[in-house]
């Protein structure tokens, strides 16, 4: 009975791992550190552009409209970078989940082998 449950669990975990791998490219395919550095650089560049826009706005007559437009541009850029960061985090999380599933599968397989070795073969009358 427990052997059937273990085999069912292994098959379910294998299906989950296969689905996780086919839905999104793995975080290993991307250089996560490089992507995070790129996002940080773009965020910094966005801040610099906003600071320059803000300085330019104070030299104009309609300051508040100009500042509002500059904030809107900054917010759009920041939102896009945040979206990219969330996608990257999700991919990394899924990759870690797949690795955890593989470790669990390996542990279950090892336990199953030990169980099969420790149980003597049944003799038929």
> What kind of sheet is the major sheet?
none
Radius of gyration: 27 Å
Beginning-to-end CA distance, first to last residue: 22 Å
In the predicted model, the low-confidence regions spanning at least 5 consecutive residues are 1-6, 19-25
Strand percentage lies at: under 5%
Structural class: mainly alpha
Q: Give the overall pLDDT as a whole number.
A: 80
Q: How would you classify the quaternary structure?
A: single chain
Number of helices: 3
* Net shape: rod-shaped
Describe this structure in words.
About 85% of the residues lie in helices and about 0% in strands. It is rod-shaped. The chain is mainly alpha-helical.
Question: How would you briefly describe this protein structure?
Answer:
With 125 residues, the protein is mostly helical. Helix content is 83%, strand content 0%.
What descriptive keywords fit this protein?
125 residues; 0% strand; mainly alpha; disordered N terminus
Describe the SSE topology.
Layout: H1 2-23, H2 32-57, H3 63-118
Helix pairs in contact: 1-3, 2-3
